[in-house]
Amino acid sequence: MRLAIGSIIMESNTFSPLKVDLKHFKNGYLLFGDEVIAYHKGKQTEVGGFVKVAESEKIQLVPILSAWGLSSGKVTTECFEFLKNSFLQGIGKIDQFDGILLALHGSMVAEDADDAEGNLLEATRTTVGKKAPIIVTLDLHANVTEQMADNTDALVGYDTYPHIDFFQTGEKAAKIIISTLRKEIKPTMAMRKIPMIIPPENMQTTHGPMADLMKKAKGWEKEDKVISTSIFGVQPWLDIQDTGWSTVVVTDNNFNLAQERANELARLSWESRHRFDMELVPVKEAIRKAMQMEGGPIILSDSADCVSAGAPGDSTAVLKALIEMKINFPVALTITDAQAVEKCIQKELEVR
Description:
The chain is built from twelve helices and nine strands. With about 350 residues, the chain is an alpha/beta fold. A six-stranded mixed beta sheet has the order 2-3-1-4-5-6, sandwiched between helices. Strands 7-9-8 form a three-stranded antiparallel beta sheet, covered by helices on one side. Helix 5 links the parallel strand 4 (about 100-105) and strand 5 (about 135-140). The termini are far apart.
């Protein structure tokens, strides 16, 4: 048994003015061929999970590419086409393979492709045909689309936020594709999308409404014929068509059960929507509360300019409030300003 594997992971924030080019991925990692397994083997990544299962099952892997970039704005057309074509060309060069394992984010947006992953998966399905199963792992914040579902045999999402199950999700996907190729199961998938976007600050799976929903979903995986259940709470900073919460259920050759469970999970999610509501604290009020606390350090997070969700990190709102309030204790504040840094460098060089 031979499996083609790859990964392209980047989360877009369409409100960010920053563009993602190939250099952005190279600053993360951009690997080809044998570099993929050499890098991921032994690591707690989705591809690391692929490798671990393949080794234990004596399955041969054919690595194509692995790309990762920090969350940012839209991916340039040139960059996306390079990544997509590199993967497709890699597939085309393989003499023989039985299936494809892919690790994607699910909320990557390109300049000319709002549903970048759906675009990639459709092109992949067109290239390999319907015989080879395609199993894909996705981030819990994926914006799942019909284009993604129509061109894959199973979509498997993370179960945790904060995300600590990359490796386990990779293992799960690898076991599904191996069981499929051994004719032990026939993955049958259904999804349900609802018009809901929630604050990510209250999406954690350790407690609260998402934890309750995930517990219900994971309970169904113990049922006969249910292979995988996933909740995709979606990256909320996407100004594109068809953005929203989705549920995906994969069964063993039982579409009605898959759709029934996906619908039920979507219904429970919708009924829980108000439980996700939360009030963020205004900047000056947060600073005043911090000043009243003993000990430290005290950390304040600017949710609207969260770089880990793709924001540029250049907001001066907190700095402005600190100056206006005449704060008299030490503060470390990070602001992205490439032009200011360049001026400082030039000034330093002049002084020298």
